[in-house]
């Protein structure tokens, strides 16, 4: 995977020239911090150099020893090297790695049979409810799916997605918007633009955008990832649940692209189980000391998770 576009997006969203900043200024670190009692604020003011994938992918690849050494060189002026969102592992990580519990991520693994697997996962009653809601949504809304690289700067879809994503950021109180119009435009122009798909739902009678989601198709790893979704709940017709139908429609779309492994992203695990998640993994953020003098404090913070 080419990480430069995600690095650029991280820097733009966090207003920095390189992916190095205080831990507490990192959107996803702050999101966890808000749910915990902070006893040592100075620890979270220490500088971290953030490694790929910059929290832009729900699950990142664990770096090998050679890559880790290169990242430590890049982090030479930071207190910590932060390797984000890694699958929790029971193997020995080495004495210097502090694994800080993060979130969980969910997957829907279809084995090439979306409807059969979904019915078996959620049960017949919930499966029928999902397909019925989808039929209602498709009667009420027009759906567009665009490859991000094919959207020009002034394309309506970019603007509409940005507006709906901003509503999502406001609803959940995120400290940073990772997908502003400018960031989307940069991703669209990048070599990664062909791998991103933008899905939009427009209410038919008004042509108003009411739902949007962004996904990433990784042919190399064989994973289709649903990244973010934004809804204008005030404009969605009564009786529709576009949160649920977006998942089902994207399962079908990913299946048409040939993907059997669909990542549903981090967090909100109970909601994702109701829409078909059948595999859940624990994630850690790796903190590797560079210049810090608060190693023990980070061990203690990790133990709070």
From TrEMBL:
This is BioF2-like acetyltransferase domain-containing protein. It comes from Rhodococcus tibetensis.
């Amino acid at each position: 995977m080419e990480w430069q576009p995600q690095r650029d997006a991280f820097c733009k969203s966090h207003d920095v020239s390189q992916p190095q900043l205080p831990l507490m200024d990192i959107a996803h670190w702050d999101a966890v911090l808000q749910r915990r009692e902070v006893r040592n604020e100075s620890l979270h003011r220490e500088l971290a150099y953030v490694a790929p994938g910059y929290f832009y992918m729900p699950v990142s690849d664990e770096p090998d020893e050679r890559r880790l050494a290169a990242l430590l060189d890049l982090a030479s002026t930071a207190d910590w090297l932060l390797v984000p969102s890694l699958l929790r592992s029971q193997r020995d990580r080495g004495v210097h790695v502090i694994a800080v519990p993060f979130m969980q991520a969910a997957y829907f693994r279809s084995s090439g049979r979306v409807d059969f697997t979904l019915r078996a996962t959620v049960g017949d009653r919930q499966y029928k409810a999902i397909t019925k809601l989808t039929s209602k949504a498709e009667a009420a809304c027009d759906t567009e799916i665009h490859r991000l690289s094919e959207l020009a700067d002034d394309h309506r879809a970019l603007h509409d997605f940005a507006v709906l994503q901003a509503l999502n950021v406001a609803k959940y109180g995120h400290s940073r918007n990772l997908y502003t119009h400018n960031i989307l435009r940069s991703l669209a122009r990048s070599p990664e633009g062909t791998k991103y798909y933008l899905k939009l739902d427009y209410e038919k009678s008004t042509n108003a955008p009411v739902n949007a989601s962004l996904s990433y198709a990784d042919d190399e790893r064989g994973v289709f990832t649903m990244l973010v979704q934004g809804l204008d709940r005030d404009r969605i017709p009564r009786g529709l649940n576009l949160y649920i139908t977006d998942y089902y429609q994207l399962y079908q779309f990913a299946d048409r692209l040939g993907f059997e492994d669909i990542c549903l992203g981090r967090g909100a695990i109970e909601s994702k189980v109701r829409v078909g998640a059948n595999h859940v993994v624990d994630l850690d953020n790796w903190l590797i000391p560079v210049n810090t003098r608060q190693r023990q404090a980070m061990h203690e913070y990790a133990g709070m998770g």
